């Protein structure tokens, strides 16, 4: 649920407000606000809420209604993956300008397609008219015996990432420039694949100490791990796997900027005890046909640091990707 | 979650779409879409989603930001009560024109105040900018050992209702006419009280066969019981308890119209085996200082019927209250 709060200073107020609330059901709540999901009860029921607003998270000119639904559901299910939770079902709330038309049905078909892809069912819905933007709010419900939190990383751990980064950001950049994005970039934005099976497998192998999904951009999300785990994180610029569409559409530095600052890749970022990632990487790649790349190291201290190709290490601002800015730029 | 779907024909499409989806996690899902909440897992975790949209469910001129949050949370928690579920926590998604300002914080304070009143915690949140209306989406999470469904009513059962009806509708009517509502009507709209303790107590006594919360108006919600239970329902016009603000603001017939067609009273409507309600009513009133009134009978057949004060029985249209129409009228 954190992606919507975002890393921007504008939400510090609300974030602190959420955290300061009394936790009156503390015996039932195993993980409260501040991680990707809440986890409740003896069964480890895992819950996250993710709201997508037209003009903020997407534009209707960019996506079909079916893609809007698919993408919103993928973002929520990705939060379950980040906790190593098996998806069970979705609840969907739609506010839609013409709720009786085909568009509402098409959005729901997109949600349903994503749900089927992760063997989740639809638990319920609420559809209402919107006098303004299309709003798709998805609650993903899962189950985890042993949630992987953001807070478990320790100095000496290694930082790994699944897949390649920056594809969705390359698509947004093309649209904003008035161009059509490359098909692979468009696909990365419109149909992200939550790394559900990958996360469950990784967590089951042991040695994964922290995990989240990349929704705010690598810089911001690495910052979440650093803050939650009270550690520093050093990212190797040369090691970050850049999505082909981001790499070809720009200079090397632009590709890296897309990966670091561009949001919504919905890949996994994880910390693992030293050596464990290397032991798992080959089988992971074979099993899932997805890359697993070591991109950095967890250190004592705080903040996120970027080791440049030159060898120089610089502090990285934690701003990351800010959903608020999409329309203003 | 049904209130947002509403009884209007415009949602038949979406409603049928929700129901036709495969239930791939059927062993985990104890109650799926179509009741007030979904119920999952061995612990009976109970989930509902309820979206409130400015200009559809409320207007900012009518309510303070704190009341907007309180009311939205009350509506969701009322769905838990309808299943006889104990509240555990809330997830909140806000889309708000100026998310960094005091308004977001005030909405959250309203949500938190309602949460505290039912000993629920805040499980998480997602706050984003809205380019249009203020949207408050609340997920209420509870737990029930024995959910009371809409589908358990049988011919011969009696129909009972808590509290008095039509107060919120009287407030909306006053605002629409350019008047200020009576304080009691305004309070009924702005600060509805979910009947959580009442529902848990009633369900624990046994003999309650069906229950829901009144969000679509008595006519529409009685229709939900009739449809789900495959029975008919006869409501006695003379027995319906009219809210003082609705009764004084209008003729007798107008007061009844507010109760039957006006939505969002968030009182409980229940069916109980013959005689059970009468056995419970005195203790209920003493315990909760809330009325419990027999308003009708469950019969063989289908649909909702109104027994007029004259004795004549007429079919009641199931239209009920339609959230879609608030702005159009």
Can you describe what's shown?
Two copies of one chain form a homodimer. Chain A is α+β, with helices and mostly antiparallel strands and about 325 residues long. In chain A, about 35% of the residues lie in helices and about 25% in strands. The first copy, chain A, has eleven helices and 13 strands. The first copy, chain A, has helices at about 1-5, 10-20, 65-80, 100-115, 165-175, 185-190, 195-205, 220-230, 245-250, 250-260, 275-290, and strands spanning about 30, 40, 45-55, 85-95, 120-130, 135-145, 160, 210-215, 230-235, 270, 290-300, 305, 315. In chain A, the strands form two sheets. A seven-stranded mixed β-sheet of chain A has the order 8-10-7-11-9-12-13. In chain A, a hairpin with a 5-residue loop joins strand 12 and strand 13. In chain A, helix 3 runs parallel beside helix 7 (about 195-205), helix 5 (about 165-175) crosses helix 6 (about 185-190) and helix 5 (about 165-175) crosses helix 10. The longest helix of chain A has 18 residues, at about 65-80. Chain A is globular. The relative contact order of chain A is 0.17.
């Amino acid at each position: 649920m954190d992606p919507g709060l975002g890393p921007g200073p504008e939400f510090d107020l609300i974030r602190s407000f959420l955290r300061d609330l009394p936790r009156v059901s503390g015996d039932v709540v195993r993980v409260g606000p501040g991680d990707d999901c809440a986890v409740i009860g003896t069964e480890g029921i895992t819950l996250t809420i993710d709201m997508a607003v037209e003009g903020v998270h997407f534009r209707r000119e960019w996506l079909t209604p079916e893609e809007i639904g698919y993408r919103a559901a993928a973002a929520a299910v990705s939060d379950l993956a980040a906790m190593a939770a098996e998806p069970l079902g979705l609840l969907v709330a739609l506010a839609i300008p013409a709720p009786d038309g085909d568009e509402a049905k098409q959005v729901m078909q997109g949600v349903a397609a994503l749900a089927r892809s992760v063997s989740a069912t639809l638990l319920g819905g609420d559809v209402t008219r919107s006098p303004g933007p299309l709003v798709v709010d998805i609650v993903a419900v899962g189950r985890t015996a042993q949630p992987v939190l953001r807070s478990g990383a320790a100095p000496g751990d290694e930082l790994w990432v699944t897949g390649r980064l920056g594809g969705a950001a390359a698509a947004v950049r093309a649209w904003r420039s008035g161009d059509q994005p490359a098909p692979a970039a468009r696909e990365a934005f419109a149909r992200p694949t939550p790394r559900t099976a990958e996360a469950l497998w990784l967590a089951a192998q042991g040695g994964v100490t922290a995990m989240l999904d990349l929704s705010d951009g690598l810089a911001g999300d690495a910052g979440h791990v650093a803050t939650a785990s009270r550690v520093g994180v050093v990212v190797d610029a040369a090691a970050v796997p850049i999505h082909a569409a981001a790499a070809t559409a720009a200079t090397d530095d632009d590709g890296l900027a897309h990966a670091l600052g561009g949001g919504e890749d919905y890949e996994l970022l994880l910390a693992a005890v030293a050596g464990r990632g290397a032991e798992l990487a080959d089988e992971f790649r074979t099993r899932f046909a997805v890359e697993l790349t070591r991109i950095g190291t967890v250190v004592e201290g705080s903040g996120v640091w970027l080791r440049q190709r030159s060898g120089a290490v610089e502090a990285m601002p934690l701003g990351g990707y800010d959903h608020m800015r999409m329309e203003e730029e």
